[in-house]
Amino acid sequence: MEDKEILEKFQNPDSRNLAFNQLVRKYQQKVYWHVRKMVIDHDDADDLTQEVFVKVWSHLESFRKDSQLYTWIYRIATNECLNFLSAKKKRFFLPLHDVAAELAEKLDSSDHFTGEEVQLKLQKALLRLPEKQRLVFNMKYFDDLKYEEISEILGTSVGALKASYHIAVKKIEEFLKNN
Amino acid sequence: MEEKEMNMNGVPKEHGFTTPSRYFDQLPTRIMERTAYASPVGVTAPWSWVKKLRPAFAAATMALVFVIAFLATYTFSTISSSSDTSLASVSDTEIEQYLLHQSDLDAAELAEFAAVSPPHRLEFIEVRREDVNLDAAMELLEDKNVTESLLRDEY
């Protein structure tokens, strides 16, 4: 079902649930993987994904169609991730590096990571990046989003995103070379 | 260039994370269960008018409390002043008769009351001075008899 059709059906109380169910089925994987790559742990990603869709449900009525639906959903998911990581830092009075270390430990002990060693190293390299750079890299490298789309999601200029991605790649290469 | 290819190009684009089996089959149901308890913003819920009118209800309740407090104060002061007025209309003679017949007070006690309460003079309670003097003389006489009796017993 096209986004336009989903939105039209959502306006009608009789078909609202059906339309939203279609929306969830269409975007659940994109949202989950976007969140999972940021928070690493499956249970956290599961909670946040549900939270994202509850927020989408609550605010879809006020969604302005001047942006695309999936970039709007991505933006909500990104905000949820950043808020989650920020709360984690505050809760444990930990600087960024320690949160990264905690997430790296989860990565090592996770039952739901079956990647090769090089993939594990890449994820560990990503955890050493600032959150915004990590977001940019994930959306560009794994999700194949265009800079224009990432710009719409993060509210950052395309030029700044290109620079951010370039710096992220350099840091990752450096990490992989040294490890 | 060769180094870059060796690193980033050698890394698969798959991230390596997995989920529990059938996770994405069950997730929509769990999400729909949660949304069943959340009203979409802008959609009118059956009781949403109650939320909208909450400030008005609060203001009305406050106004009602003030009105009740004002009425209670006004009514109490009216009752109080009317009782003062009705007491003022009772004559002194009637009050005296009431005190003499409804209580155990005698003329001397009434006079004593007048002595400790200056505004209530003897004229007000209409006690004759001779009665007061007679009571005082009797008391003095009794005291004198008791003293003499004691002295006699002692010696």
UniProtKB/TrEMBL annotation, chain A:
Name the record gives this protein? RNA polymerase sigma factor
A Pfam match is Sigma70_r2
SUPFAM superfamilies linked: Sigma2 domain of RNA polymerase sigma factors (SSF88946), Sigma3 and sigma4 domains of RNA polymerase sigma factors (SSF88659)
Could you tell me which InterPro entries the record lists for this protein?
Answer: RNA_pol_sigma-70-like, RNA_pol_sigma-70_dom, RNA_pol_sigma70_ECF_CS, RNA_pol_sigma70_r2, RNA_pol_sigma70_r4_t2, RNA_pol_sigma_r2, RNA_pol_sigma_r3/r4-like, WH-like_DNA-bd_sf
Report the PANTHER family cross-referenced here: RNA POLYMERASE ECF-TYPE SIGMA FACTO (PTHR43133), RNA POLYMERASE SIGMA FACTOR (PTHR43133:SF51)
Which organism is this protein's natural source?
Rufibacter roseus
For this UniProt record, the keywords arranged alphabetically read as follows: DNA-binding, Sigma factor, Transcription, Transcription regulation
Keyword Transcription included in the entry's annotation: yes
Q: What positions does the domain RNA polymerase sigma-70 region occupy? A: 23-90
Name the PROSITE patterns on file: SIGMA70_ECF
List, for all copies, the residue spans of the domain called RNA polymerase sigma factor 70 region 4 type. Answer: 120-172
Automatic annotation (TrEMBL), chain B:
The organism is: Rufibacter roseus
> What keywords appear on the UniProt entry?
Membrane, Transmembrane, Transmembrane helix
Where, by residue number, does the polypeptide cross the bilayer? 56-76
* Name under which the protein is recorded: Uncharacterized protein
